[in-house]
Design brief:
Protein name: Acyl-CoA carboxylase subunit epsilon
Biased composition (Low complexity): 42-51
GO molecular function: acetyl-CoA carboxylase activity; propionyl-CoA carboxylase activity
Helix content: 25-40%
Number of strands: 0
Distance between the termini: 75 Å
Structural class: mainly alpha
Region (Disordered): 31-70
Strand content: under 5%
Largest sheet: none
Order of helices and strands: HHH
Radius of gyration: 28 Å
Number of helices: 3
Pfam families: ACC_epsilon
Shape: rod-shaped
């Protein structure tokens, strides 16, 4: 057990040093956890305070209808 097994082994071809470096870079980048967790989706309470595009109407009298209850 004195000799460690290699992490990456080339099965076919003869890659250049640059190709091996690119492969190792991708493997290392993929093995790390993301830097920060993805943002949580907005709650229903937070969404309720945002204006919706569906209820907005443009044109004559739009300013008046924007203040009316739906």
């Amino acid at each position: 057990m004195s000799e460690k097994e290699p992490l990456v082994r080339v099965v076919r071809g003869v890659p250049t040093a640059e190709e091996l470096a690119a492969l190792v870079g991708v493997v290392v980048a993929r093995s790390r956890p993301p830097a920060s967790p993805p943002p949580a989706p907005a709650s229903a309470w937070a969404r309720s305070g945002r204006p919706t595009r569906a209820g907005l109407v443009s044109g004559t009298g739009a300013w008046r209808t924007s203040g009316l209850p739906r």
